[in-house]
Amino acid sequence: MLPKTLELLAAGQTITINDAETINRELGLPPGVHTCSSLVMAPMVLDNKLVGALFAGRKQPNAFLSDEASFVRGVAEHLTLAWRHAKLYESLEMAYRDLQQTQAAMMQQERLRALGQMASGIAHDINNALSPVSLYASVMLRDPTLPEKHRRAAEVILKAVESASETLRRLKSFYRTAPATSNLEPLDLANLVTQVVELTKPKWSALPQQQGVVIDVVTEVEPNLPPFPAVENELRDALTNLILNAVDALP
């Protein structure tokens, strides 16, 4: 289509052509391709922008009366209005989906907040129950006459209570966002593995022996392994679960 024709359509003008040669030229077609001798082009303008045009053609020359050209223009205006409504509906539908997603996210956040409050209350009660255990284990360790076997047992109990307290602390704040590196500390992996093996000993040694089953735990840690940054209690929990799950999986 010629630039001049596009300019007229963009300006909102309806164009009527009554010459087959001119029609082919306006549409950018070779001579004789278009068989219409009369053509009406009605613009479709949306938000001051030409988005399309409605064409009506007849083989007879001078075939369109002014009322018919106005009718074609009216149809084009109705099509443009329908297009506008379709785009508006699409925008509203997208906004509604965004609103639903936002509401779902807010509801999820509210659920997490409620769970966090409930977890905080539960953790408080469990901490109260663990306090006497920690206290008596500490008192036992201060006794210089305590046999070495019992001292090691008291140390394991105290370490288990500390680990449980840290787990409860995380439980209280699990719904809050915190930097992943907030509790990273240099960690001695060999020492941690030894602690976990001792901590889980009742599960993999004492209880199975009561049923006539013997389980050995063999650890291999690279010697002279340098400390590395980690969250001690989380890694201890992971290793503990690894051993407990392995014992449960044994026949």
Characteristic key phrases:
251 residues, 5 strands, Helix Hairpins, HATPase_C_sf, Beta-Lactamase, three-stranded antiparallel sheet, 3 domains, EC 2.7.13.3, 7 helices, mainly alpha
Descriptive notes:
There is one protein chain. The chain is mostly helical and 251 residues long. It has three domains: 62 residues, GAF domain (Beta-Lactamase, 2-Layer Sandwich); 86 residues, Helix Hairpins (Orthogonal Bundle), CATH 1.10.287; 69 residues, no CATH class. Helix content is 62%, strand content 11%. It has seven helices and five strands. The chain has a three-stranded antiparallel beta sheet with strand order 1-2-3, sandwiched between helices. A hairpin with a 2-residue loop joins strand 2 and strand 3. Helix 3 packs antiparallel against helix 4 and helix 5 packs across helix 7. The chain is rod-shaped and about 120 Å long. This is histidine kinase. Its EC number is 2.7.13.3. It catalyses: ATP + protein L-histidine = ADP + protein N-phospho-L-histidine. It is an enzyme of class 2 (transferase).
Question: What is the element layout, followed by pairings?
Answer:
Blueprint: H1 3-10, E1 15-17, H2 20-26, E2 38-46, E3 49-58, H3 66-141, H4 148-172, E4 185-187, H5 189-199, H6 201-210, E5 228-230, H7 232-249
Antiparallel strand pairs: 1-2, 2-3, 4-5
Helix pairs in contact: 3-4, 5-7
